[in-house]
Amino acid sequence: MAKTPITVAYGDGIGPEIMKAALRILLEAGAEIEIETIEVGEQVYLRGETSGIDKKSWETLLHNRVLYKAPITTPQGGGYKSLNVTIRKTLGLFANVRPCASYYPAIDTKHPLMKVVIVRENEEDLYAGIEHRQTHEVYQTLKLMSSPGSEKIIRYAFEYARANNHRKVTAFTKDNIMKMTDGMFHRVFDEIAADYPDIQTEHMIIDIGSARLADTPELFDVIVLPNLYGDILSDVAAQLTGSVGLGSSANIGAEYAMFEAIHGSAPDIAGRGIANPSGLLLAGVQMLVHLGQAEAAERVHNAWKRTIEDGIHTPDIYREGRSTQRVGTMEFADAVIARLGMLPERLTPVNYAKDEPIRMEPPTAVKVKAKKELYGVDVFLDWDEANRDPNALGQKILSEVITPELTMTMITNRGLKVFPDVDVNSFKTDHWRCRFVSQTPIHHNVIVNLLGRFAAAGLDFIKTEHLYYFDGQPGFSRGQGE
Ligand code: NAD
């Protein structure tokens, strides 16, 4: 087999020790990889490269397409950008795949039967970093989710499930509250699920879903989630297996991929030769599967399982009574290498699909464009007068601002309708949303004219959101209490 070139970053802290150990095992197991090393992380940051990676390393990365990365240290203080976020976004790594399996009885856990794979959307949602302070009291982050982005991650989860013999895919959202963003994710999930009749599907609201995951993880198999929920729950799930130190993750895109442990650079134990290389090694197993080298991946994973089953443990997982030998990083690697070709006896051996790795084409844009019509606008105000009395604001707008083309249907504060009609004396901030609608489609000029009148009335509008109908369906939510 021709060797596949990969880029390796040794990282900081314990990074170099665990990378050396992991690569030794992978190569001894017959991984057909050709290694090209780049420097990323602390020293690069301190040389003034705010992204933690220099131009030459980028070129290597782009050329080889696969990055195997040890943890890095982000220096304290402002100005340094997260290397992981930069790599994920630049390389279009839309899927974060984190297997979370218990290794009981080799490793203690409250959930001996747990075997869950978290598939997290990696590029969208609240991670766009579009944030604004709008008033003295109110701050905003935009949660942006696209239907092609959702389709890509959900289809990936189903393809992953099918290729790896999983029986069920569960989606978690909060679409009872976020009907537009999470509602769309849920709808796309249902549509794509119909293409996979061989796989069971279910949807849960994230709160009860998380509670069940923490209590009875054996109910779940593959879980697909939007970015923020996935970020949080993938750490929870890894911890539930018994040790976050064994966790690995794959960041997958259409053309590029990155594999790493989920823990950090552990500066407190760096240089002592006692770090556990397992998380990074298991990321290496994911990498070999991705490269189509399933046999080598299986050999490594089974030998590793046999090693921990034999009680050969680094100090972080060593337990009197359960462990038999306390070893350092390199001795652990030696023990795994000595077991290459063996299967675990009590733990279930792994069996990776021999198929080609899953490749996802970038999604096509919107298939059929809906008819989009403008019917109104929400105008947001920074207003802190008249003891924040909504009636005072409402009357001012009705007398000084309103135009004949539009009707003001409500004013809300923190999403709750406070005008017209009775206001139950709720707490109010200095941030108000005023909704204007028309019975017939309008042109943008109507909104521009309205905003001109707001300005003339001395009212500080801080943003607008247009109210569109798509094929006759409202593309906006109602106000609470509307
Ligand atoms: P950490 O994961 O590095 O360490 C937390 C604790 O777990 C420490 O006590 C450490 O000794 C222990 N630990 C971690 N990995 C271990 C291993 N393989 N074997 C044995 N013990 C292990 O988290 P932290 O201390 O919060 O962060 C340290 C640095 O790592 C920070 O600069 C942080 O920004 C960075 N970090 C990097 C990544 C990454 O590169 N992907 C991820 C998380 C944190």
How does this structure look, described?
- The protein is of the alpha/beta class.
- It has helices at 15-28, 42-46, 55-64, 83-90, 147-163, 181-193, 206-215, 227-240, 278-290, 294-309, 329-338, 390-400, 444-456, and strands spanning 4-9, 33-38, 66-69, 95-101, 115-121, 131-133, 139-141, 168-173, 200-205, 222-225, 248-252, 257-261, 312-313, 325-326, 372-382, 407-413, 416-419, 431-437, 460-470, 473-474.
- The chain folds into 3 domains: 1-109 and 241-358, Isopropylmalate Dehydrogenase; 121-220, Nucleotidyltransferase, domain 5 (2-Layer Sandwich), CATH 3.30.420; 372-474, Alpha-Beta Plaits, CATH 3.30.70.1570.
- Helix content is 32%, strand content 22%.
- It has a 10-stranded mixed β-sheet with strand order 2-1-3-12-11-4-5-10-8-9, with helices on both faces. It has a 6-stranded antiparallel β-sheet with strand order 17-16-18-15-19-20.
- Strand 16 (407-413) and strand 17 (416-419) form a beta hairpin.
- The longest helix has 17 residues, at 147-163.
- Bound molecules: nicotinamide-adenine-dinucleotide (NAD).
- Residues 14, 18, 71-74, 84, 245, 260, 263-269, 275-276, 279, 316 line the site of nicotinamide-adenine-dinucleotide.
Short structural summary:
With 482 residues, this protein is of the alpha/beta class. The chain has 13 helices and 20 strands.
Count of the domains: 3
- The radius of gyration computed from the alpha-carbon positions, rounded to a whole number of angstroms, is 27 Å
| Apparent shape | elongated
Number of strands: 20
Mind telling me the CATH superfamily name of the largest domain? Isopropylmalate Dehydrogenase
Q: Can you count the helices?
A: 13
How far apart are the first and last residues' alpha carbons, in Å?
Answer: 66 Å
Structural class comes to alpha/beta
